[in-house]
Amino acid sequence: MAWKPFSSKIERSIVEAIQRAEDTCSGEIRVHLDRYCKGDPVFKAKNLFFHLEMEKTKQRNGVLIYAAIKDRKFSIIGDEGIDAKVPDDFWETTKELMLAKFAQGDIPGGLVVGIEHAGEQLSTYFPSDEDKGNELTDDISYGA
Prior knowledge:
Number of helices: 5
Largest sheet: 4 strands, mixed
Oligomer: single chain
CATH architecture: Roll
Distance between the termini: 11 Å
Radius of gyration: 14 Å
Helix content: 40-55%
Shape: globular
Number of strands: 4
Order of helices and strands: HEHEEHHHE
Strand content: 15-25%
């Protein structure tokens, strides 16, 4: 059986947060969870980004929120379309909001607040586009 750290109700609340955030912008947000991350979580997220084929969005505006639950590591990365338009510290506020929830032991809450804030931030640079459709699945992906 595949590893899943959350109940189906909590998982559904995370997926619903992704859907709400994507309604406010044309960006695509995904969440990937691992138990462990032996190295740098940013490096791991960059590899996963391409493994999950997130670079295939039309505007190159995918966002990956990566978290290794047991190692207490996480990162947020955006595709080149986002990086070309936003300031260097674009994700810092989102990371701080997530970290505050994680520090309280609220991993799902940290993911949801990160997703919501990412959607708000992206809406400035990538306004909602009703014609785009859903380019990437909203489901959470899981590693080992």
